[in-house]
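Q: How would the structure tokens look for this protein?
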Amino acid sequence: MNYKLAQINIARMLAPLDSAVMSDFVNNLDRINELAETSEGFIWRFTEDNNESAIKVFHDANIVINMSVWQSTKALFNFTYRSEHKNIFKRKKEWFSSMKEMHMACWYVPFGKYPTPQQGKERLVYLDTYGESPYAFTLKSNFTPKQASMYKLETRKQK
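A: Here is the predicted structure in token form.
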């Protein structure tokens, strides 16, 4: 089976989206989303239209969610740290509070399948609880789709 990389990242806003504090973030959102969508290796992005479901999953109206699917960890890494996105990323403290819990997770999904906010939340909780594995990891890891497909979740949870 052909697998692609799914990712979720969440952030807790310092103020509502329509506030002056968040205005520069909001003003850059369409440009950065377009950059992602035209980046090499991009496949899919969770859209703002679905943000209500994210609010319900995270039980916090101040949480914003970003989910996407990419061809590979390399493609996601290049967009995140080697494109214009990196300049917005460097400014995150202007708009978002520091989070103690994991706020970013990656995992593999079968090609043509798209993750839900609930699945993303499960990967974040798993990462917080058990650490990195082929089930949930960060871009610092080099897990492969093959490792993920062979990974036994029950084994990890028993440790």
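The helical segments are 23-37, 51-58, 73-82, 85-89, 117-130, 145-150, 153-158.

DSSP finds seven helices and five strands in the chain.

Upvote if useful.
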